[in-house]
Amino acid sequence: MSKQVTDILIVGVGGQGTLLTSRILADVAVQMGYDVKVSEIHGMAQRGGSVVTQVRYGEKVYSPIIKKGDADILLAFEKLEAARWLDYLKPDGIVIINDERVDPLPVMSGRVKYPLDIVDKIKEKVPNTRLINATEIAGQCGNTRAANVVLVGVLAAVASLPIAEMENAIRRMVPEKAIDINLKAFEEGMNIISNGGL
Amino acid sequence: MKQLMIGNEAIARAAYEAGATVAAAYPGTPSTEIVSTFAKYDQVYAQWAPNEKVALEVGVGASIGGARTLVAMKHVGVNVAADPLYTFAYTGVNGGLVLVSADDPGMHSSQNEQDNRGYGKFAKMPVLEPADSQEALDYCKLAFTISEEFDTPVMLRITTRLAHSQTMVEVGSKEEYQLKPYKKNVPKYVMLPGHARGRHVEVEKRMMQLKEYASSSPLNRIEWGDRSIGIISSGVPYQYVKEVMPQVSVLKLGMVHPLPEKMIRDFAGQVDRLIVVEELEPVIEDQIKAWGIPVEGKELFSLLGEYSPELIESVLKGVSNEDLYGLVKEIPARPPLLCPGCPHRGVFYTLRRMRLVVTGDIGCYTLGALSPLDGMDTTICMGASIGTAMGMEKARGSEFAEKMVAVIGDSTFVHSGITPLIDIVYNQGTSTVLILDNDTTAMTGHQEHPATGKNINSEPTKKLDLPTLVRAIGIENVRVVDPLKLDQLQQAVQEELERREPSVIIAKRACALIENQPTGIKYYVDPELCTGCKVCIRLGCTGVNFLDEEKVAVMNLNSCVGCGLCPQVCKFDAIKVLEV
What we know:
The complex is a heterodimer of chains A (198) and B (580). Chain A has 198 residues and is α/β, with parallel strands linked by helices. Chain A has helices spanning 18-31, 79-84, 105-108, 118-125, 134-141, 147-158, 163-173, 179-194, and strands at residues 5-13, 35-39, 50-58, 71-76, 89-98, 129-132. A 7-stranded mixed beta sheet of chain B has the order 3-2-4-5-7-6-12, with helices on both faces. A 5-stranded parallel beta sheet of chain B has the order 14-15-16-18-17, with helices on both faces. Chain B has 580 residues and is of the alpha/beta class. In chain B, helix 3 (52-64) runs parallel beside helix 5 and helix 10 (193-216) runs parallel beside helix 12 (261-269).
């Protein structure tokens, strides 16, 4: 049975801007006429904890959260978080990882080591894994803070989302003075995939 | 046109469309956005109340005064409001009143996961439970009608997953609602024993009528499918059932109290196996069993935590999705922690250093209990820190109180810390109470409160002056310190602990997320001077990390905001100013 619903899991660390990303995606899915559900995390986890936002769209969506093993795409703003949430990915799913390391408390305090080979381990399990240096690309576009929109660009290319609608959503959801930088960041993110490179 | 809304926004929209003109709440995850959204509509009155009891009492008054009224709170907030609630269920309403209870299965941001559907039975009021934002809007509007038709407050019970999920909503137009006339009605609204006896009769009649209504109400519906399994569910778990077992027959309950007995009996009679899927308590299941209908529920599903599609699938279909990739066990945990620059950090560092017993409270600062700060011994509920300190002192003597402080936030203090402080004065306790005043209700997303001097719309209002209030209670030793100045803070705590009198120390510094940082200074660690003692790491701040190989600390300038705590704790002056 082929899936009727597209499931995208966006994970990161509280404060990294996962919410803006999910809202851009959801906005586009609405413009495309789909039924859409988005689940967000508020409250305590936002204080530097592991956060997850889930976007689901299709003809008819029931659950607001993705079933483990069902996500088509896992977009991780941080490497460790990609591994933490990997169980949500379907067997032939796609993982997009921002090449960013944010040490959790047990690592910061030197009690546990950050698993440096974590991306390799993910690649072993999931061939469709793409590591993106979004912060660097965003910096080239004019502001490292647009890193999340670089990732949105990557996602748009991977999920074949309509470009004009994506750009509309970005225009509406980022501060006016940041629109140009964010559109550039979006385009650069798309180019990574359309150029076939990593 | 349909639009995406979180459940909380849909509820606010519903109240607006239903013509509600008064709303009151105390912020609490996952309920906060309900009344903050409602406040943005034109020609309505919305307020933050000091606590949920006051919020509901304002709601009661607005209802008796003839307005449709919305009151919202998190599940544990209903406990605070329970006193007026039970008796308001006797008096009934004038203008319709909807009380939203936002429960938190899984405790994303709560201290317990009580199931407030139980209040329906206990307080004898109808409870509606929507399963997505559209239903949240539709049910909330209907709840106002039910409230007036049956003369009862109505609870709209939601959970975190509904409150904070965006789903598609078709909004409606605003109904023209005329304020109902106010008529003095002593037997209905003055709950003297003689009057209340009369009202109790009405309450029981009303519950019988509501039971009838439940079986014919559009709130409850049967979706026929394969009849080998019939599932009864409500709220978001209904969506999980539809997700993983779209083919089965489902009785979807929108009204979870009182239950539609006739409808449930009919449904049960037409399926081979009857299963209730409900998060937390067996509220529906117990009632069905009491009717003598064979049903399965909690022998299959957990009493604990939030459900998920994979949980339903594993229980009903025997499919397991655990650890598909075998990586999960290797991943270091990422607990939440106080933000860089948080004014609470230095307080807990100091209290831990002084080896004090700390009775704590509810807010961001509860994170001070976690390692490496380890700065808290107890946390029970809003306001409990102060009464708990008093009880420990009375149990173990005033010498024990010299090694103990109570810690409470500014918003929490106003919520329910004032009365226990009066208790300490009245009953001659000697506790030292720290009010961590960050000038906001931070945990729930920075809401105003009486001591910020602004109302829900950020307009200036009379500011509650905490030092004056505390002195008026009878606390003679009141001082205000800057929690980023650790020596000053520690000295204040030491001096107040030594007094055989109650004291209040107000650690005053605005939340790091709402105010520009005090210094703007950037620091670096001089690796020549750093001995790797890790004292700075005990601050639990993402701004300073430890390099295990080199055995030195290093600043993380992406994270550091220059609050200046780590240079204060470094005994070797290894943390130096990089630039100002």
